[in-house]
């Protein structure tokens, strides 16, 4: 199919993009890499009357890390993160680089952008899950100035976020490293949307023999309208214990019991619970081995 008719606008800078969004109102959509929006337009699931192209705005494709914080520009592509060195990311942020292997296929990763993925707010998208897991902060600019939105407050529902119609994402900030973390997902074919995705960030005591877990964070995608943290699984990790199959199995079981996933053509609710159990166990094992 072809998209419905629209008017194309090119923004030269952030201020110009914001002016266009304010003038054009709710009928306008931002386009950058277009890897999510164009597909929806082709199927006429989205019919914006205006497209505001921000792809050529300079200064929004950065990776800036100082070892404790990582700032990623909205126009940074998935592939740029995928090939970034430790010198750019910082050793505590290698999870982000590893997670990019799950994002579609290489042509999608070379065009798709971090900001676009967050704004699209697909519940199975890797950047959305990472943002929730690691307490990311989304920086948005609009006519009223710049504001920072916590990831936990950013995702409101299916493809719905806290962004106003006249705001655009300019940057995402990851405020702390996650040296013992991992993201895994399952799809019928590599590159397809995940049926379930799981990410963990473990607090590991490196000074104890055999490594001990003192706590951690668990997040899931594909089991709710938005990526979700799982407090029940985190409570198991907070009890502490030796890093190993027993602790990870109990953590995963708590998560599987706590969620109420949907059933659809990709699998039943019970199937998603079973995937959750397996993915969290494996993600914990991978995270602690880092």
Brief characterization of the structure:
This protein has twelve helices and 15 strands.
Which features characterize this protein?
Uridine Diphospho-n-acetylenolpyruvylglucosamine Reductase, domain 2; Uridine Diphospho-n-acetylenolpyruvylglucosamine Reductase, domain 3; 5-stranded antiparallel β-sheet; single chain; globular; Enolase-like, domain 1; alpha+beta; 290 residues
Overview of this protein structure:
34% of the residues lie in helices and 25% in strands. A 5-stranded antiparallel beta sheet has the order 4-5-10-6-7. Strands 11, 12, 13, 14 and 15 form a 5-stranded antiparallel beta sheet that branches. The protein has a 3-stranded parallel beta sheet with strand order 1-3-2, covered by helices on one side. It is built from 12 helices and 15 strands. The protein has 3 domains: 7-53, Uridine Diphospho-n-acetylenolpyruvylglucosamine Reductase, domain 2 (2-Layer Sandwich), CATH 3.30.43.10; 63-174, 2-Layer Sandwich (Uridine Diphospho-n-acetylenolpyruvylglucosamine Reductase, domain 3), CATH 3.30.465.10; 181-288, CO dehydrogenase flavoprotein, C-terminal domain (Enolase-like, domain 1, 2-Layer Sandwich), CATH 3.30.390.50. The protein has helices at residues 14-24, 37-42, 78-82, 86-89, 94-99, 106-111, 114-120, 126-133, 151-154, 231-238, 245-258, 269-288; strands at 7-10, 28-31, 50-53, 63-65, 70-73, 137-142, 145-150, 155-157, 160-161, 168-174, 181-186, 196-205, 212-221, 228-229, 241-242. The mean pLDDT is 95. With 290 residues, the protein is α+β, with helices and mostly antiparallel strands.
């Amino acid at each position: 199919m072809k998209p419905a008719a629209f008017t194309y606008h090119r923004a030269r800078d952030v201020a110009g993009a914001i002016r266009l969004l304010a003038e054009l109102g709710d009928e306008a959509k931002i386009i950058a890499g277009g890897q999510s929006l164009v597909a929806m337009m082709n199927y006429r699931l989205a019919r914006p009357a205006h497209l505001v192209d921000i792809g050529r705005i300079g200064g929004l494709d950065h990776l800036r890390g100082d070892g404790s914080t990582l700032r990623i520009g909205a126009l940074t592509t998935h592939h740029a993160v995928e090939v970034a060195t430790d010198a750019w990311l910082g050793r505590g942020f290698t999870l982000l680089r590893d997670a990019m292997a799950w994002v579609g296929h290489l042509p999608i990763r070379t065009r798709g952008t971090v900001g676009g993925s967050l704004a699209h707010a697909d519940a199975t998208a890797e950047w959305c899950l990472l943002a929730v897991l690691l307490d990311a902060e989304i920086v948005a600019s609009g006519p009223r100035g710049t504001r920072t939105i916590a990831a936990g407050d950013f995702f409101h529902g299916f493809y719905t976020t806290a962004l106003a119609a006249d705001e655009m994402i300019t940057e995402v900030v990851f405020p702390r490293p996650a040296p013992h973390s991992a993201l895994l997902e399952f799809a019928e074919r590599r590159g397809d949307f995940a049926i379930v995705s799981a990410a963990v960030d473990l607090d590991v005591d490196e000074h104890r023999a055999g490594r001990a877990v003192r706590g951690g964070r668990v997040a899931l995608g594909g089991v709710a309208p938005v990526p979700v943290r799982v407090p029940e699984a985190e409570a198991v990790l907070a009890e502490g214990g030796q890093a190993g199959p027993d602790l990870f199995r109990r953590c995963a079981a708590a998560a599987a019991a706590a969620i109420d996933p949907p059933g659809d053509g990709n699998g039943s609710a019970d199937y998603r619970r079973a995937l959750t159990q397996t993915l969290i166990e494996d993600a914990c094992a991978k995270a602690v081995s880092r």
